[in-house]
Amino acid sequence: MASKPSxxxxxxxxxxxxxxxxxxxxxxxxxxxEVFGTxxxxxxxxxxxxxxxxxxxxxxxxxxxxxxxMYSFTDQGDHDLSLRPEGTASVVRAYIESxxxxxxxxxxxxxxxxxxxxERPQKGRQRQFYQIGCELLAAESPYADAEVISMAxxxxxxxxxxxxxxxxxxxxxxACRPSFNSALVEYFVKFQGGLCDDCIRRLSKNPLRILDCKxxxxxxxVEKAPRFSAFWCDACVTHFSAVKQTLDGIGVSYVVNxxxxxxxxxxxxxxxxxxxxxxxxxxxxxxxxxxxxxxxxLGGPDVxxxxxxxxxxxLVLLLQDSTKKDPVDDVxxxxxxxxxxxxxxxxxxxxxxxxxxxxxxxxxxxxLKSQMRKAGKIEAGSVVIMGDDEITRGEVIVKNMKTxxxxxxxxxxxxxxxxxxxx
Length: 423
Ligand code: HAM
Fold this sequence. Notes:
This protein has 16 helices and 16 strands.
């Protein structure tokens, strides 16, 4: 006898999103479309695969994401490709490649989709994870920073997430970075023995990246490292003050946390994170910042950029834990008993569906009791009982599951009956 084929599982750190959990995902996506739309953002969809060089140049070669976490490969045509680890670099590439950067530079995009990072999976951290992100291009004004941050807050509140803290910081610009970098090198050189191998390399290549190293002994050394604020140039001070003032003016609460540095190289000036205490180590639900040099760095004009992205899995975890219940769509369940009823069921069901009424039924005839149990399980608002006797009279029985009330309804009146009761 042939052996039973083995079961193939999804790759580690990559999970299926199945019904009914998908409902929360769809609600979040719909809320994003609705909220971002009111701020003038349009959806953009970019490829999941990009040239590896896009992330090397965009995100930065010495970031952990590019150094260690990308799924990269050479395809049959000898092209170096990577599964996208984040969305900003791709959006900026599309903005430049489409010519929008010259035609209509002030652009607002949002996107949603899977990203890939080969990290150690844990609660709220996966290898394939979903982000919803927004990017605002060619807006230098500090009002843009405040608007983007308040839009993120608006979205989170609208999606039903509460108890988040907003932390903001300014991480300097091209003008003040060099002196900050020198101060970092001067400090870290003294503690070289305690740094991991990656950070020793970063010391000469990109000392800023030591600040977001996840290694515990590096983290201890980072605690007392110099802070950006002592090195901000006048323009950075003015910009950050204006961002804070505008946030105060529109009632967005925040704390300034000088440890918010972000792990991607393109950031400058404003950096922000919305964090929670409910998800353990993976506490950043939504994070972003300004990236004024990125468009130019990827071959486009010298225009500004600012945006954010949120981790869908983390949002879903928070919403699952919250007491806010998802509104269940009112389902009409068809309990069908008998051969004649079985044959007549689908045409009647389709009549209702064509009027936008959601109907479920079990195809295989079962006892009325088991079908009523199923209706209860899916929280159906009404059950339509179709038996052979009723069918011969051109009728069905409709039971309202909330009140327990039953009534006979002519089949031809059925769609009207549900539309009338809002079903
Ligand atoms: P990021 O901080 O790398 O920024 O990621 C943004 C968010 O994605 C995180 O705060 C987290 O919620 C989620 N996330 C990241 N990695 C994982 C993972 N392995 N599993 C689950 N969730 C994860 C960016 O990606 C920037 N592109 C954001 C941005 C847009 N900045 C400007 N514009």
